[in-house]
Amino acid sequence: MVLERGEVANSWRHERWDSLRLLTPNWQSRLPGYRYEGTDPDGFMTVAEVVDFVSRFAAACAAPVRTQTTVTSVRRAGEGYQVLTTHGELTCRTVVIASGACNAPSVPALRQQVPSTLPNFTAHEYRNPNQLPEGDVLVVGASATGVQLADEIHRSGRPVTMSVGEHVRLPRIYRGRDVLWWMEMSGVWNQRHDEIDDLTRARRLPSPQLIGTPERSTLNLNSLSAVGVKLVGRLAMIRDGRALFSGSLRNQFALADLKMDRLLDTFDQWAEGRDLDGAGPPERFEPTRVPSSSPLSLDLASGAIRSIVWATGFRPDYRWLDLPVVDDKGHLRHEGGVVDAPGIYAIGLPVLRRRKSTFICGAEDDARDVTEHLAHYLG
Question: Rounded to 5 degrees, what are φ and ψ at 22?
Answer without folding.
Answer: -60, 150
